Every structure is written in C-alpha cells, then in structure tokens.
Amino acid sequence: MSDDAYLFLLPDRRPRLGAALAAVGFLECADTPAVLGWLQAHGVSAVSEQVRILPADARMFIPENAECLPVPLGEAEARRVRQECAPQTVTDVESELLEFRETTQDWEALVHRALTAGVPAPRIAQLTGLDAQDIGRLTM
Predict the structure, then answer these.
(1) Domain range annotation of the chain
(2) pTM reported for the whole predicted model
(3) What is the pLDDT of residue 29?
(4) How do residues 73-102 score in pLDDT, each as one tens digit?
(5) DSSP one-letter code for 118
(6) Rg of the chain over CA atoms, in angstroms?
C-alpha cells in the first residue's frame, strides 16, 4: 500500500466533496480496525453519504471542522478514488440528462402496460418512484 487518502465526515449542508466511500468499491483499509472503529465512534456506516474520501493531495478541500482519518491505499485503489473524485464534464452530465429523458419519455406507456399486466398502482409507485397520484390519473 503506497498512496494515502483521507476519509472524512462531510458536515450536513455542505456541497458534496470527494467521493462517497461506498462509490469507490471495496478498499482494503475499510475492513481495518482503525477505520471500523472510526466509523463506529462517529455513529456512521461505510455506506453513509456523509463518509467521503479524497486523495491525499486534495486534503486542503476537506472542511476545517470535518472529522478526518488518513488511510493507506494500494495503487489500483488510489486510481479508483481519483477517478471517482474527478469532476464530471458538462458534456457527461448533459449526456446523462438526455439518457434520463429517453428513459422517462414513455413512462405513461410503461405504467399502462404494468397496470394491464395486473401490477397494482401502489407497487408501480414503489418500484418507479413515480407519484401515486400521477399513476392514479392514468387509471381514470
């Protein structure tokens, strides 16, 4: 293990800095007694959005009042952390928005097919995250 990174707890109401620990995939350091004890001491789990990680050379971005823990990373782990922390380009985000539009464009037809197949409206709302009232309007 050669490269270092910092785990930190992002205080509420802060812009999302670094990457969520859960987003970078398995890191060997996450199973160490030091990290497990640190998480337990702060009452958070490794999958919490508050638990963030940044490469060591980006430590200056960690808020002053944030709880912080240095962790060792292997070469491949450090690469994943850097990749997950890299900002997305506007083009990438716009592409995601277009994909979302294409995915949701025919949501009404999909809901009709589900209703016809016998899926109850509350279950459709639960699975899709759509508002139950929007689904109800389609059944009228």
Answers:
(1) 3-85, 90-138
(2) 0.60
(3) 93
(4) 999 999 999 988 988 787 887 888 888 887
(5) T
(6) 21
List the one residue out of 1, 19, 8 whose CA is nearest residue 80. Answer: 19
Structural contact between residues 130 and 111, judged by C-beta atoms closer than 8 angstroms: yes
Record the tokens describing residue 123, joined without a space: 């279950």
Q: Let me know if 135 is exposed, middle or buried by CB neighbors in 10 A (0-12, 13-18, 19+).
A: buried
Angle at 69 between CA 15 and CA 54, to 5 degrees: 45
Strands 3-9 and 51-55: antiparallel
Are 55 and 82 within 8 A, CB to CB?
yes
Token pair 């160490």 in the structure block, residue: 32
- Other beta carbons less than 10 A from residue 53's beta carbon: 28
